[in-house]
Write a structure and sequence with these properties.
six-stranded antiparallel β-sheet; about 775 residues; 18 helices; Rna Polymerase Sigma Factor, Chain: A; 32 strands; 5 domains; alpha+beta
């Protein structure tokens, strides 16, 4: 019987309601109760008590999610039956689960600060911050009390993957607690889950993970600016997640708050169109900070145009920086200051003395990603915004950034706004009493929220009309979604415009916490020994130390599961796997794992950027993983943060083609097993330390070449290979995306392609 009809029976006070409820959901409720109590008789009593409680509650209540309503009552009653002091002896499932959660929640000895229902509300915020797959797995484990094997079977996943997902969710819960939101012990958190929104309970019962068994799901993911759009906003340091929530804070009494306009600073009575094309992050139009920034913009625009014609643009060199200093002096402004390099955004926030950038909000979740600052105190942080998915919004996830520029300080930060005559600005007073200016255009992707603090200008941009890539039945198309004015108001309400950041110093940089370089699980220690990148390939060496009585030197060791990624950019896919090699130390219980990673991104930029933080998660170690003799060496999860900086990043590359050439590639194999060869026009060959890249001249390709181009392999075919030939005569094989070993570019004599084409090193090299 349908839920609506069963509810009608309750409202009619028809006792068949209980019978129909048991028919529809009795088995699932018994499973839930038994998972908690580990006793069939106790579970039976809890389910019967559930039916009695439902009979008393309906009417007047008419639950939207009937099963979730039932399950919440059943779970609560079952937990009430648990004798927490004796449960360990009875091996109740809740005890080890609360112990698991205990490690996520800091400072368990304290005065209790909230009731379970308030805790449930905060847990809603935490659950909303999780990607759907992680949320489902987390709830099946800690709400439904399913075992790891049961979860793996339910979603068609490996147990290792389930454990990895749980580990990441628990780490996020730990950091959510570190932020001051969940000051409860593991038992209280477990009980607090009884008060979460029923939509999550229903979701965990009816939905399946992407890529798992069950019904197919339409996948929607960010297309543009994927560098900062990720479902979870993770602080890039230490693989950390930092969910930012804050209590209601009023603006300090000394801060000037007024209605204003982006154009002329006057009172904005009604929303109106503006035609400005340059938006300074330094100050409002008419201020010296704005004028200096505008002059810098004009200077840089002219310089870029000139450099574009000559090819001489070198970025922000000493000459450009000197111009910035000159403009600061001309307009009586403080210099913009020198950049400070923080390893993680958590380190940056500590240096600024800002725990959170947002206030508590039920309407929108705002998380902080990477950031950058100068010793003048000016900074920016990347943001991600998430709205409830059940409110009918077109835009539920989007990205942006917050800029903070101190009054009377020069800043070169500006945005150029395409003038299509439809930019509209309006004043809005936030729930905290701050007046902000909101600037949007229905034809532009970005919108802006600006707050003139008096002591600083806070500017937030976000994608209000984002473009998304949709995949449905194998058909890929672009969708353009639109954020409502009400959503923008919610964002403004959620942001904390009363922050009082400190001016960071070099001492703060020197004192920042370094990410962990080793971790031990079950007696096995994994240490991050070295990381190198040429910008396109990353080479990672991890050392293993086993217990002294375990000989691993001769074993073929591999990981059971591995994640290597960065939270602020969406990958199109990548590759990389560990190979074990001897570490040469003569000890039987130590060994190295070496992997070279290649990744592609939707934004088309270089994957391994200077200053980026990547997460490396390793789950379980195996011996002879893909052989009949396969066995688990040890279970465990090891987590590392990898920071690409000047010490491990080498962007040097050689271009070996000065003008287009023709080269032969293998495009497949004929029925008799012979290589199919075809010539292609080549415009570029770049050689790097760990990789090389051949660029085809698409403008010169024929239609036949264009169709065959995706399959073209210039590096190898039957008995033919590409090599970097060194000055001493040795050869290093070049593969399609990675070299077989690192290459010292200074020692390269020439490159030999598979078809015999010789590419000499340019004389200047």
């Amino acid at each position: 019987m349908e839920d609506a009809k069963i509810l009608d029976l309750y409202f009619a006070r028809d006792e068949d309601a209980i019978r129909e409820t048991d028919t529809a959901y009795g088995k699932r409720l018994h499973t839930l109760a038994k998972n908690i109590l580990q006793n069939r008789e106790d579970a039976e009593e809890s389910v019967n008590d559930t039916y009695a409680e439902v009979w008393k509650s309906i009417p007047p209540r008419r639950p939207k999610y009937f099963f979730a309503f039932l399950a919440s009552i059943c779970r609560h009653l079952s937990l009430n039956r648990v004798d927490w002091k004796q449960a360990a002896k009875r091996r109740a499932q809740v005890v080890p689960l609360t112990e698991e959660m205990e490690n996520c929640i800091p400072d368990t000895v304290h005065e209790r600060q909230m009731e379970a229902k308030e805790l449930g509300r905060l847990l809603d915020l935490f659950l909303e911050s999780l990607p759907k797959d992680s949320r489902l797995i987390f709830l099946r484990r800690y709400w439904y009390v399913d075992s790891v094997p049961e979860i793996a079977a339910r979603y068609g996943m490996t147990e290792s993957k389930v454990k990895m997902q749980l580990s990441r969710a628990k780490e996020k819960l730990r950091l959510f607690g570190t932020g001051g939101n969940l000051r409860m012990n593991g038992q209280e958190i477990f009980l607090g889950l009884s008060y979460i929104s029923r939509k999550y309970i229903e979701e965990a019962e009816t939905e399946t993970v992407s890529g798992g068994t069950g019904k197919a799901h339409r996948i929607r993911r960010p297309f543009l600016l994927a560098a900062v759009i990720a479902l979870l906003l993770l602080l890039v340091g230490c693989a950390a997640v930092y969910v930012l929530k804050m209590e209601h804070v009023k603006i300090s009494s000394g801060t000037d708050q007024r209605d204003y306009s982006l154009v002329d600073g006057v009172y904005v009575k009604d929303p109106h169109t503006v035609d400005t094309t340059t938006l300074s992050m330094a100050g409002l139009k008419g201020s010296n900070a704005y004028k200096a920034c505008a002059d810098f913009y004009a200077y840089e625009t002219e310089l870029r145009a000139s450099a574009s014609a000559s090819g001489d643009w070198t970025g922000y060199d000493d000459t450009i920086n000197a111009k910035a200093q000159e403009l600061a002096e001309q307009y009586g402004l403080k210099p913009e200051g020198q950049p400070l390099t923080f390893r993680t955004t958590r380190n940056l926030c500590d240096a600024l003395g800002v725990e959170r950038f947002v206030r508590n909000s039920q309407d929108v979740s705002i998380d902080v990603d990477q950031g950058f600052c100068r010793d003048s105190g000016n900074f920016f942080v990347l943001l991600r915004f998430a709205f409830p998915e059940d409110q009918g919004y077109e835009v539920t996830y989007t990205s942006g950034a917050l800029y903070w520029n101190r009054q009377d300080t020069f800043s070169r930060e500006y945005f150029t706004l395409e003038d299509r005559g439809d930019w509209v600005e309006r004043n809005y007073t936030t729930s905290a009493g701050n007046t902000v200016l909101i600037l949007t255009s229905p034809s532009q992707e970005r919108g802006y929220i600006i707050c003139d603090r008096g002591d600083a200008l806070m500017t937030v941009w976000l994608d209000v009309n984002p473009e998304l890539l949709s995949e449905d039945a194998g058909v890929v198309s672009a969708e353009y979604l639109h954020m409502t004015d009400a959503q923008l108001d919610m964002v403004a309400d959620a942001l904390d415009f009363a922050i009082q950041p400190k001016v960071p110093t070099q001492a703060d940089v020197d004192a920042q916490a370094a990410p962990p370089q080793e971790a031990t699980q079950n007696g096995y220690t994994l240490k991050l020994k070295s990381v190198e990148t040429d910008g396109y390939v990353a080479r990672v060496v991890v050392g293993i130390t086993a217990p002294e009585d375990v000989d691993i030197e001769s074993l073929n060791i591999s990981d059971g599961g591995m994640f290597f990624g960065t939270p602020d950019r969406e990958s199109m896919g990548g590759s990389g796997a560990f190979n074990d090699v001897t570490d040469g130390d003569g000890l039987a219980n130590t060994k190295d794992l070496v992997a070279e990673f290649t990744v592609s991104f939707l934004d088309g930029l270089r994957p391994f950027e200077l200053g980026a933080t990547w997460d490396l998660d390793i789950t379980d170690l195996y011996v002879d993983q893909w052989l009949p003799t396969s066995r688990v060496l040890t279970e465990g999860e090891w987590h590392f943060s990898i920071i690409f900086d000047e010490t491990n990043t080498d962007y040097d590359e050689m271009e070996l083609i000065s003008s287009p050439i023709t080269a032969t590639a293998c495009t497949g194999w004929s029925s008799d097993g012979k290589d199919i060869l075809m010539q292609f026009p080549i415009s570029s060959f770049k050689l790097r330390k760990f990789s090389s890249e051949i660029t085809q001249d698409t403008a010169a390709e024929t239609e036949e070449q264009r169709r065959a181009a995706p399959s073209a392999d210039f590096y190898s075919w039957r008995d033919h290979f590409a090599y970097a030939v060194m000055k001493d005569g040795t050869k290093i094989q070049l593969l399609e995306r990675t070299n077989c070993e690192p290459i010292d570019l200074a020692q390269v004599d020439y490159v030999l392609l598979a078809d015999g084409t010789k590419l000499p090193v340019p004389a200047a090299q």
